[in-house]
Design brief:
about 350 residues; nine-stranded mixed β-sheet; alpha/beta; single chain
């Protein structure tokens, strides 16, 4: 997301605090460099078993619809007793209520995709008071305790989009349609894109649309911007799941939706990796996207909540699934999953999750 303007680049190395190190040092941990950590510790409220609640931020995006479909499959694969998912419907206050409702139902673990990086702290505090571990998916909380954040490197999203546009558009105006700036995802993608353009492609002028992960907002503001700046040469969509369709419709309505390789084509790079983006790449309507891994978000959300309920701990290092666990400011750990750039050259790769869903 899915999801501005302090860049929160995670350190790539460093040790956990002393307690975590002591818990890890006794064993040769593959998850101190992988996810198969066998460190025993104090388990969650369920002592390693029990119902797990799964809370979604929204279901209006194809990305989150895909994640929602993956959850029960991955829960079964990881032997996690997950309840039916709950949709917070893009409302941060509703998400706190959803967390409280799940806790009142006696769940022993929670997997939550936060809508607001700061507001989620109230829900995390409720869970902590009940001794219920939480795994955050897609968004890292600014405060509050979580056992693990499962997320791709959102700074890299902005940097990859910048690098692609910078190579395709040598000079002129480019626009980034931003996510919600209350989300760390929106902040990191936006600032990374700005910084990269400033440092590496100074002949580009960045225009910005704060769209809050809202399709209608993106469409209306892009329409207005194109009226004022019809010479825009590139667009960065921070969430293809909500911004792709309105962007293509807006470009089409203005006679600006021209195929890649033809005169007047506006270069578009997106984020998410949904099937609709892949189809748009094949048609030449957009040029690239960064594939945000809906499948492994679900898989490792389930993996880490089970581990947390069993009292297992982890520390920074390379994992056995092509990612890296890093330590965020404040000591929270984040498993940064791979998120490849997809272009016409690799759009048909069968390993991409967007090619595995109907």
């Amino acid at each position: 997301m899915t999801g501005t303007t302090k860049r929160a680049t995670s350190p790539r190395a460093g040790a956990l605090r002393a307690a975590a190190l002591l818990g890890c040092a006794a064993l040769a941990l593959t998850a101190c460099g992988s996810t198969k950590d066998d460190t025993a510790g104090a388990g969650g409220a369920g002592g390693g078993t029990g119902k797990v609640g799964v809370i979604l931020p929204l279901l209006t995006s194809p990305f989150w619809q895909s994640y929602n479909d993956y959850v029960p499959k991955m829960a079964t694969a990881e032997d996690v007793d997950a309840l039916k998912t709950v949709n917070s419907n893009s409302d941060p206050s509703q998400q706190i209520t959803d967390i409280n409702n799940q806790l009142n139902q006696g769940v022993k673990g929670l997997v939550v995709a936060p809508l607001d990086s700061a507001a989620i702290a109230a829900g995390l505090d409720q869970a902590a008071r009940k001794g219920v571990p939480v795994v955050a998916v897609d968004v890292a909380p600014e405060k509050g305790k979580v056992a693990m954040v499962v997320r791709a490197d959102n700074v890299a999203y902005g940097e990859k989009a910048c690098a692609y546009l910078g190579k395709q558009v040598t000079s002129g105006k480019v626009v980034q349609v931003m996510g919600d700036l209350a989300s760390v995802n929106g902040r990191e993608r936006s600032q990374a894109f700005r910084d990269c353009v400033k440092d590496k492609y100074p002949k580009l002028k960045v225009l910005e649309i704060p769209a809050k992960w809202e399709s209608d907002t993106a469409a209306s503001k892009l329409d207005t911007l194109l009226n004022a700046d019809p010479d825009i040469k590139g667009i960065y969509l921070q969430a293809g799941g909500v911004y792709l369709a309105p962007t293509l419709q807006t470009l089409k309505s203005k006679g600006l939706l021209k195929a890649a390789g033809t005169a007047g084509h506006i270069t578009v790079v997106s984020n998410d990796g949904i099937p609709q983006e892949f189809d748009a790449i094949r048609k030449g309507q957009i040029d690239a996207t960064v594939s945000q891994p809906a499948d492994t978000y679900a898989k490792y959300g389930m993996y880490y909540i089970k581990a947390a309920m069993q009292g297992k701990t982890f520390k920074p290092g390379k994992t056995d699934h092509g990612s890296e666990i890093v330590e965020l400011p404040g000591g929270t750990l984040e498993d940064q999953l791979p998120a490849p750039l997809v272009t016409k050259d690799n759009v048909d790769d069968p390993e991409l999750w967007g090619n595995t869903v109907k």
